[in-house]
Known about the structure:
The structure holds 2 protein chains of 2 kinds. Chain A is an all-alpha fold.
Amino acid sequence: MKGTDVEVMERAPEAQPALVIVPPSRAEVLRRRALAAAKEICWYLVVLTVCAFILLPVSWMLTAALKPDLAPIYTVTPQWFPSHAWNWNNFYRAMVYPLFPFLRYMINTLFVVFANILGILISCSLVAYPFARMKFRFREPLFYLLIITMLVPWQSLVVPQFFFFYHLGWYGTYLPLIVPAFGGNAFFIFLIRQYIRSIPKELDEAARVDGLNYFQIYWRIILPLSVPVLTVCAVFTFIWNWNNLLGPLLYLNNNNQFTIAIGLANMFQNSANSKTNLLMAANLLSMIPPAIVFLVIQKRLIGGIATLGLKG
Amino acid sequence: MLARLTRNRPGAEAAASRTTGRVARREQWAAYMFISPWILGLILFLIGPVVASIVLSLTNYSIVFPWHWIGAQNYYTMIHDSIFWQSLATTLTFVLYSVPLYLVVGLGLSLLLNMKRRGVNLFRTIIFLPYVISGVAVAILWSSLLNPQFGGVNWLLHHLGIAHPPLWLESPTWAVPSVVLIGLWSVGGGAIIYLAGLQNIPAQLYEAAEVDGARLWQKFRYVTFPMLTPTLLFVLLTGLVSAFQVFDVVYLLGGPMGGTGSALNFYLLNLWTQGFGNGRLGYASGLAWVLVMISSIVILAIFKGASRWVYYEHEGN
């Protein structure tokens, strides 16, 4: 203890000159600038390489989508660009292609996605509110149970859920893809509960004094203030359901009901009946909605992950 | 509080506790109404199915035919099924290759993207974008890029002077590495989580380290890395879980039989084929439980080991 004090005392006078601003020599300034520039160039080189690795495949797909029907996508020296025409029309043709009606798939998928968002927003905000604000018996054990359910792997549920929905007569309908959302999702309930706890409690106490009941407090005070976290939940729900393959694969059996994921999968596996340029066009179209949603909400999404509090 | 104020009036205490009791009971009643959708969902879609799944795995249930108890027969069949062992080996190989690779690459990317440089926001967006794209779309895209004769990847390799590039998905030895490569394309997802973790590290720590004369590597070794270990653990666990559950990409690339030489017959693809292709739902339930067991053991082992290398800020308390 004593020793370290002495050391600090001894070191202090030596450290003193650093505080006096001595203008560095011209050579030193140039050397530092060159080093910083070199670092910056390296940084841009690495980052641009990574971006090329991500964007080149997409551009490959775009050029493949624009090629005319008869032009082979695959030539021995691959043609990156279409040699004759840029058939933007292919996107329209992919949408209305009779065997694999992409527009139909898109409408079906939007229906499933929005029904899920509705279900998730209603159920998860309802359930999160008492966990954040109210006193009731077994609150703590129930909350632990909620956390544990996040860890249950879905593989163990696929077969019995199929069994259950099949015997309910829901096979071949959208119900198995939608109804579970109305039962809540542990991850979102947790997220919303954390957020509600950050809303000042005085607000609902004042509302109680004004004679609002619990539901009115939830509806008029908690919900409007929770819009940011609800947006994050809606976006996650959108992306998960838009991309979900296994659910539609299990429960849907009619081409007119199919969602984009399963429609594209069929188009890909039935290559004899589908045109590669239209497949690529459809594939590219399928990427656009989640990409747009992501771009719009990007900042908040990253913030959402940060506030989730990875520390528990 | 209420009780203390009304103490000196006889009978008031009992009345007060009755009122608060009524209020509390009303609050309880309301709370249970609020959480009832979750309770209902929990029973119908989670607890029920988990129990049913254990029961089903002890039967030869197949939707069409009448079913009966067969005890541990499904598990016995599994041990003697070479396809089961092959699919397990494929999945474990994938886990072994992909999880450490994605962990390191994701961390490296997030460190790059955490710097303040012109255009960094645009680069972040581009690198995160594949994360929101579906497994189906990614599989279709890469199957055309990895086509051995005509795909963009081998075209590039030819130009770089490699005369005999791999056959990728069509070669039994390169099939799993191809899936690892495809996954690398969307590794930005992990980087988002790291980036959130990096931004939570207090700036004072770096300032203090600089005062002490720490250089770039030392700042990473003694500040960034320890502060990021909880995030690393989180990414490791979620990465493991999703590596065990690979399905969409291999379903598309391999088809139900798992591609050339069944090299893409991942565990869940085999479960799908057995259960929903061959109609052996009882057996598929058994397969599901074995996967749950294996992945839980791995995850528990990592949790046990985590206390040695994960640093929590509030450890002292």
